TrEMBL record:
It comes from Litorilinea aerophila. The gene is ruvC. Mg(2+) 1 binds at D27, D161. GO terms for biological process: DNA recombination; DNA repair. One of its GO terms (cellular component) is Holliday junction resolvase complex. The keyword Protein biosynthesis does not apply. Belongs to the RuvC family. This is Crossover junction endodeoxyribonuclease RuvC. It is found in: Cytoplasm. The active site is at D27, E88, D161. Its EC number is 3.1.21.10.
């Protein structure tokens, strides 16, 4: 275990030294939480470091599912040492039960970030679509294709929840870059 922890610490130091920012983007859900780890170099290049999903078992009690999300996020943070986290805001549709479930998953995600002292930015689905595709009502497929193009990937990240997590991270990095540009011009 100590060797694994040292290896993770060494990898984290290497990641931190190479990149200006490392964003962990999260598309929260109780059954499936999508994530994307995107790094930005000092000259603005964007690189996908990892993406995937955290899946929980439907038959498990909710508190154990939330614990699994929380612990898996800590594993990702150990491995990639993100400098910040971006989370999709809750979209309240017609399904109240689903909204409550997603809200619980968001709570586990936000707690994991708080325990690590990570700054968190939250974006609505429309803000993410606007930042990625230039249109707040873009279709899911358009967003996925733009994620692929922006990162120069051979394929669209799969599954869809992973692609959504990558889109959240990209939205954040592009938003921060834009804000930095505005600040430098104003100052």
């Amino acid at each position: 275990m100590a060797a694994k922890a040292r290896q993770a610490a060494a990898q984290a130091n290497e990641i931190q030294g190479k990149w200006d920012r490392v964003a962990l983007g999260i598309d929260p859900g109780t059954a499936t939480t999508g994530y994307g780890v995107v790094a930005q170099s000092p000259d603005g290049d964007l690189v996908l470091l990892a993406c995937g999903v955290i899946r929980t078992q439907p038959g498990q009690p909710m508190h154990l599912r939330l614990l699994e999300i929380y612990e898996d996020l800590h594993g990702l943070m150990d491995e990639f040492s993100p400098t910040e986290m971006a989370v999709e805001k809750l979209f309240f549709g017609r399904n109240v039960t689903n909204a409550i479930s997603v809200g619980q998953a968001r709570g586990a995600v936000l707690l994991a970030a708080a325990k690590r002292g990570l700054p968190v930015s939250e974006y609505t689905p429309a803000e993410i679509k606007q930042a990625i595709a230039g249109y707040g009502n873009a279709e899911k497929r358009q967003i996925q294709e733009m994620v692929q193009r922006l990162l120069g990937l051979a394929q669209i990240p799969r599954p869809d929840d992973a692609a959504d997590g990558v889109a959240v991270a990209l939205c954040h990095l592009q938003t921060v870059r834009y804000q930095d540009l505005l600040s430098s011009q104003a100052g």
